[in-house]
Specification:
EvaA-like; lyase activity; Oxidase EvaA; Nucleoside Triphosphate Pyrophosphohydrolase; EvaA-like_sf
Length: 429
């Protein structure tokens, strides 16, 4: 435990110095254990485990473009993202890990107590066991505070889910070298530090409110029942058809021995990395990763309605979304990808968010996305306060929700998308 956050930052610097990391971008055809399938062009591991990179053909009536094809990650197994919580002198503390991921722009970030795919925690790689795993697999001791299957990035994963868990324990827990206890209040401060609290931590921490549940709908504009009806209506109204195809059949993308990239140089690339680390379950490995070509923006517009802060939530469709739409932040996109689009095809409210004066930007912090699959992927997480003229009446695929209402929907899988969950953690008070 740290009395002051300066002590934590000293500890993190010591952990960074205590270990050695090396990540090199290498050609896809030089990845150890990975290869292009000669028939489909798909990228697979020789064991058939971990994940694969394949193609997807998408048709929808709920995006700026009606149809397209793209590479996508297929990882059907469910991983565990779990945080241990223990009270010290009546104050809840979280056991966090200083974890290296190859895609992290600064290598070392704060991860949950356990952050492991099923292939990893079942030791397909024949490496070291995952510390503290016994607290998150049955039979387990401790009180389950939060346990939900949550979606991952629908733009890059097809139907990917991880089990998000918070387990409260009473007994002694040995603290290993790369782990530390941080109070909930300390974590609320640290999420405002650029590229420090990783995506997996942010999504699990969005369930922390269930340690002390809030009240009901209060002075909300809509009841929970009305919001569930709105969400169900959006699922029924819009169409999303996906078909997995061979990676070699993806159109407008160029595949070489080096990488896979879009012919216009937009969106993302598929690259290879070679990794060496002294404090991971295995000391060396190779893998493909998705590398976005520009920084994204994930933003909520907020407005005081009936004396209570509301967030403008979007029912958003992504190619890998499990059930047509999920509850998303007002904006969730990479603006550079839309720079040549006419105004009527740009994401709604994007220009409003980008042009907001500094005094109305209440939160603005840059965070990395999941560093195990995405290379140097960053988003600017923002909370923008609407001006007085911003309407209460909004388009049919948007709805105003209080922070408590949206947080309560986090309890259920495939409701709130990963960007919105991460941003909820950043705006928690």
């Amino acid at each position: 435990m740290f009395r002051e956050l300066s002590e934590f930052h000293d500890w993190l610097a010591q952990r960074r110095a205590a270990n050695t990391y090396e990540v090199s971008v290498v050609p896809l055809d030089q990845l150890d254990g990975w290869g292009f399938d000669p028939d489909s062009g798909n990228i697979r591991h020789r064991t058939g485990r971990f994940f694969s990179v394949e193609g997807i053909d998408v048709t929808t009536d709920h995006r700026e473009t009606a149809s397209w094809t793209q590479p996508i990650i297929l990882q059907p197994e469910i991983g565990i993202l779990g945080i241990l919580v223990k009270e010290f002198d009546g104050v809840p503390h979280c056991l966090m890990q200083a974890k290296m991921e190859p895609g992290n722009i600064n290598t070392l970030q704060l991860s949950p107590t356990v952050q492991a795919t099923r292939s990893n925690y079942t030791r397909v790689h024949q490496g070291n066991p995952v510390p503290y795993l016994e607290h998150f697999v049955a039979p387990r001791s401790g009180r389950v505070v939060f346990d939900a299957l949550q979606s991952e990035q629908g733009s890059w994963f097809l139907n990917k889910r991880n089990r998000n868990m918070i387990i409260e324990v009473d007994g002694d827990v040995p603290v290993l070298d790369d782990f530390c206890w941080l109070s909930a209040d300390q974590l609320k401060e640290l999420v405002h530090v650029e590229n420090l609290v990783n995506m997996d931590s942010r999504t699990v921490l969005s369930g922390m409110s269930f340690l002390a549940p809030s009240g009901g709908d209060g002075d909300a504009l809509h009841t929970t029942e009305e919001l569930l009806s709105w969400f169900t209506e959006a699922k029924a109204r819009y169409q999303l058809d996906r078909r997995v195809i061979k990676l070699s059949e993806v159109k407008n993308w160029v595949t070489s021995a080096e990488r896979i990239s879009h012919e216009l140089g937009r969106f993302f690339e598929v690259v290879g990395v070679d990794v060496r680390a002294t404090n991971r379950e295995v000391g060396q490995w190779s893998q493909p990763m998705f590398a976005p070509t520009c920084r994204g923006v994930i933003a909520f517009i907020s407005k005081r309605i009936r004396g209570t802060t509301h967030l403008l939530v979007h029912a958003r469709t992504e190619p890998g979304t499990g059930d047509v739409v999920e509850m998303s932040s007002t904006i969730n996109c990479s603006p550079e990808n839309y720079r040549e689009f006419p105004a009527d095809r740009r994401p709604r409210f994007l220009d409003y968010v980008l042009s907001a004066p500094p005094e109305r930007v209440l939160v603005d912090v840059v965070h990395s996305e999941e560093g195990g699959r995405f290379y140097h992927a960053e988003n600017s997480y923002r909370l923008v306060e609407a001006d007085d003229d911003f309407p209460v009446e909004v388009p049919e695929d948007y709805a105003w929700m209080t922070v408590d209402q949206l947080t309560n929907f986090v309890r259920y899988g495939n409701h709130v998308n990963v960007g919105a969950r991460s941003l909820l953690t950043c705006i928690a008070r």
